């Protein structure tokens, strides 16, 4: 909230922000800094508290119980806020039933198809990579899940660049990313990128000679394409998790490129990253597309990403409310800062 306020006061350059509250997490979390909800009443209390503090949406996290999620959604919706989830104890179809608005990351985080999943519990081995690398996306239970999400108007956030980093041999390390990272964050990311492709680590971790990530990554793309083509609202976003190296801005551009690799046309991919997001936020009448009367939030790109999607990286000027910012200068101002502050 502090960063948002600084930007709004004109003290720092930055985007318009929708701020989520701290994760709504259930008992048993691995992240000790998170508050663990003690039940549905606590979920209601927590959501109310953060709405009073000025945040406008929530992310439910891996260990939340169905009763807590249900209570959180009820009070959030009552007050006009949305709830997304990076779930584990709760599968996608169950979450749709409960009334969630969005699911983060896609098929990779849907535990409901793991053979060892027990109801309402996050499996001790939530790593679904191997199992998902073999799943049928076009028919059967996954297809039913897709149709279920569409029917319940649940959107899905694509975060392909975060997964791409786990795929051995993918050429995803860009100099501009390395330049923006602090020395510590840079070396940790590069270390991680080495073990991702190390056959002895793969053997130990997955008990197989070849990493399942390349196949699982393809399945994730297939799922996202099928979901959108079935009428689902696919939106685009990133987070700085995984093995690192996915940065705000650069990662968002990579996301659009990967959507094209997943089968979307460049225009469809751009639409997902712009218009669909505005639609999810309920702000499509002001942002998300270019039209007379809409907010002048634009990027000027050298090239034509509607034909060559990689051109999307060539941003020259960013306009916010009609005021232009020099993209090169902005990026230079955060050299070696990512991971430091
Ligand atoms: Zn997440």
Number of strands: 8
Q: What series of H and E elements makes up the topology? A: HHEHEHEHHEHHHHHEHHEEEH
- Compute the number of helices: 14
Question: Portion of residues in helices?
Answer: 40-55%
Q: Would you identify the regions where 5 or more consecutive residues have pLDDT less than 50? A: none
Give the ligands present.
zinc ion
Rg calculated over all Cα atoms: 20 Å
Strand content: 5-15%
| Overall geometry | globular
How far apart the termini lie comes to 15 Å
Main β sheet profile: 5 strands, parallel
- Mean pLDDT equals 94
Q: Reading side by side through the largest sheet, how are the strands ordered?
A: 1-2-3-4-5
What structural class should be given to the helix and strand makeup? alpha/beta
Q: How would you explain this protein's 3D organization?
A:
The chain is of the alpha/beta class. It has a domain at 86-291. 41% of the residues lie in helices and 9% in strands. It contains 14 helices and 8 strands. It has a 5-stranded parallel β-sheet with strand order 1-2-3-4-5. The longest helix is centred in the middle third of the chain and has 17 residues, at 213-229. The radius of gyration is 20 Å and the shape is globular. The structure holds zinc ion (ZN). Zinc ion (ZN) binds at residues 86, 104-105, 239.
